[in-house]
Design brief:
Shape: elongated
CATH superfamily of the largest domain: Ribosome-recycling factor
Radius of gyration: 22 Å
Number of strands: 6
Number of helices: 4
CATH class of the largest domain: Mainly Alpha
Largest sheet: 4 strands, antiparallel
Distance between the termini: 48 Å
CATH topology of the largest domain: Topoisomerase I, Chain A, domain 4
Strand content: 15-25%
Structural class: alpha+beta
CATH architecture of the largest domain: Orthogonal Bundle
Amino acid sequence: MIEESLKEARERMDKAVSSVQKDFSHVRTGKATTALLDNIKVECYDQQMPLNQVASISTPEVRLLTVQPWDKTIIKNIEKAILKSDLGLNPINDGSIIRLNIPQLTGERRKELVKLVGRFGEEGKIAVRNIRRDVNDKMKNMEKNKQISEDELYRVQDETQKITDDAVAKIDELVKNKETEIMQV
């Protein structure tokens, strides 16, 4: 029971770290990456569909994304969806392909992105701490109900803290790397 709880905590904390990493992939750093367009939904065939399911997305150059729809009739819808997104990109439509130039980041925009990255990191750390609290509460209840000894409770709390520290360190490293990437581009 104790080992299962620790394993579950480790898995949940790893998912929190992965979630932070995924959030970071959507932060525009001045380099073209297909992940920037992951959250864009396109109106086509009477429904909302992810952009990557209706078009081929590539990065032929460092600051250029191309979107080539499989069905040319929806190119206007793709253009509208990109314009509606909060990415601040201006699509160039030549009738068969959409080009997205990724502009250089201004100093002010870089600072905003660093704050955003910090916020994502802090949200991830809060999630990790909440998982730690859940495990500790569960173990305290087990100790109170005489299912585990006081020594086992302290051992589990120590182990949970080590897992938490590892997850927080991973998030801190991700934040540091992303901030460096933003400021250097």
